[in-house]
Design brief:
By secondary structure, this protein is an all-alpha fold. The protein has helices spanning 25-33, 35-41, 43-71, 75-117, 123-129, 138-149, 154-160, 163-169, 179-188, 191-203, 207-215, 220-249, 252-256, 262-271, 275-302, 324-355, 361-394, 398-406, 409-412, 415-428, 437-460, 465-473, 478-507, 510-515, 523-532, 536-550, 554-560; strands spanning 16-18, 21-23.
């Protein structure tokens, strides 16, 4: 009998089915050398592989094209940018990224510890509440903070109307349009990445290690620093890399707060039709992003911690004692500034907008445009995701792993770079698609396909390969097994991935700004322009609609973490 599977449920390294025939690693190597020959012997399997390769090429081409253009941008332009522009942008971008990441780690880890490991009042509700700011795009948060702390904001008026504040603290001097303002806003709307991942890790923490430490005479403080914190390092590293990559790629918040980083500089260079300089800056930003990913990868390899599940004991809830109410105040303050305050500002301006007729046909036209291209991107991602994930898990090889990694290219890099690559390609080589909303939807696919892949992969991992083999033993070809057996079993994961893509697309700003056809505005674009013109009563209803839609996949995210 042909052996196709190990007892663990994973595919055997020696033989496995592909396209109704039998394939081995040798055949996959043969595929690299003689593609046509393998097509003749196994058309269904090679069709899957060909389809996956085409998708990977689509994902990679924009970034590759940007790099190509930047390399040939000209020596003079490189020297001018290296002498005048790049050093300043390096300082502003890296200092902001490092500062936000450090503060997000402090906030995220402390909140996760209080919510999961202590007897904080209402702890089971706080885990949901503290994740709620995740639905507020940082550029929306920036708009609300301008309203509160800006030059004509509520706080300045309050300060001016209370002479004792002036006597005690002096004139109001906080400038939201500064490094400190951008730093605080981005920290408040990115700490959730750390909080969710560290919370999930703390829930799986094994009491046995703490008991062993206490038996050696350690006190609670030593146990935290020498046992708990090392076990949390992988989760902390994952939260840190997500936060830092987001800050590197953020365009909306820094642009609205008038703080120039690489993403803002790239956009303004492109707006000034200096695409060569934009491509040079993009290459530098790509190198920075890859450097962050490399550092995170190296640190993860050096710090590996394992917990044995056979003797697992849930960690106990620790009593806060006299620190209970100060801790509750700290948690409440963080929730207030990251969710309650922004929502209050948006509701206030939305009420004014409703009284002034903001929900007119123009508003619903923007909403329809947003829903149309986001739904299109979500549908394409669900279609593209399936063959890539199926190849990766059912037919693992160097090629399928490479396809999988290439498909993550657009997600790891800022949206302005993906958009710039699309401008170069479609403006020069495929002009009939340039300036259409189809191009915007395709750019969304490049940006957010990995979200659908992660959800689909999680679902497919729960379906044993034995199910595929049983169907094939009944004479089902590979395509029929995929569509009639596997797909129904993973459909909830596919839909969840599509929902994540839909929500991410409806919030996406730089890609839409750079690629949208004339007169085609979305909710995110209108928020950006109306905020710049201080028409907050028009921007607020659009922001609230985006937030309401973004709440849909929040349960999936919380269940995942």
């Amino acid at each position: 009998m042909k052996k196709t599977q190990k007892e663990s449920g994973k595919l055997n390294d020696h033989n496995y089915e592909i396209g109704g025939g039998t394939a081995s690693p040798a055949i996959l190597l043969y595929l690299q050398k003689k593609w046509i020959g393998l097509w003749q012997t196994n058309p269904p399997g090679i069709f899957l592989l060909s389809f996956g390769t085409v998708i990977a090429a689509i994902m990679a081409i924009p970034v590759v094209y940007v790099i190509w253009r930047s390399v040939f941008a000209g020596r003079d332009r490189w020297l001018r940018l290296l002498d005048e522009r790049i050093p300043q942008l390096l300082w502003s971008t890296l200092s902001l990224t490092i500062a936000v990441t450090i503060l997000a780690l402090i906030i995220g880890v402390s909140l996760a510890w209080l919510v999961i490991r202590t007897d904080l009042p209402g702890r089971k509700y706080w885990r949901w509440l503290l994740a709620m700011p995740l639905v507020i795009p940082p550029y929306v948060g920036a708009i609300t903070y301008i309203n509160v702390f800006g030059r004509s904001g509520v706080m300045r008026d309050l300060w001016r109307d209370n002479p004792w504040l002036v006597r005690v603290f002096g004139e109001y001097s906080f400038d939201i349009h500064s490094f400190l303002g951008v730093f605080l806003v981005l920290s408040l709307f990115t700490y959730q990445y750390v909080f969710l991942i560290v919370s999930a890790s703390l829930k799986k923490s094994n009491l046995n290690y703490e008991e062993a430490a206490y038996s050696l005479g350690m006190n609670a403080k030593e146990v935290f620093w020498k046992v708990n914190l090392p076990l949390l390092r992988p989760a902390i590293g994952a939260g840190a890399i997500l936060t830092s990559l987001y800050v590197l790629s953020d365009f909306g918040a820094v642009s609205i707060l008038r703080y120039v980083t690489f993403t803002a500089a790239i956009y303004f260079q492109r707006a000034g039709f200096d695409t060569a300089s934009a491509s040079v800056l993009s290459l530098v930003l790509i190198i920075i992003t890859l450097a962050f990913l490399w550092v995170e990868s190296k640190s993860r390899k050096k710090n590996k911690y394992y917990q044995s599940s056979g003797t697992f004991k849930s960690a106990p809830v620790l009593g806060l004692g006299k620190w209970k109410w100060p801790s509750l105040i700290y948690v409440s303050v963080m929730f207030f500034f990251s969710f309650v305050l922004p929502m209050a500002v948006l509701l206030y301006w939305s009420k004014i907008g409703l009284s002034m007729g903001a929900l007119d046909s123009r508003f619903w036209g923007f909403a329809f445009n947003s829903f149309k291209i986001s739904a299109m991107a979500a549908l394409v991602c669900m279609i593209f995701m399936f063959p890539i994930v199926y190849l990766k898990l059912r037919f693992p090889s160097v090629i399928t792993r490479l396809i999988d990694k290439i498909c993550y290219t657009g997600y790891a890099l800022p949206g302005v770079i993906v958009a710039l690559g699309f401008i170069f390609i479609f403006n020069n080589h495929i002009p009939f698609l340039y300036g259409t909303f189809y191009l915007v939807a395709l750019a969304y696919v490049v940006r957010f396909l990995p979200q659908a892949m992660q959800a689909g992969e999680s679902a497919l991992q729960l379906v044993s390969p034995r199910v595929d083999e049983a169907a094939k033993s009944l004479g089902y070809p590979t395509w029929k097994v995929m569509l009639t057996v596997v797909l129904p079993n993973i459909l909830p994961g596919v839909i969840a991935g599509g929902a994540l893509v839909f929500v991410s697309s409806i919030k996406e700003l730089p890609v839409t700004l750079m690629l949208r056809p004339p007169g085609f505005d979305t909710l995110a674009v209108r928020i950006y322009f109306e905020a710049h013109e201080a028409l907050y009563y028009l921007a607020a209803p659009s922001a609230l609609l985006i937030i309401a839609v973004s709440m849909l996949p929040l349960r999936y995210i919380l269940n995942k973490y």
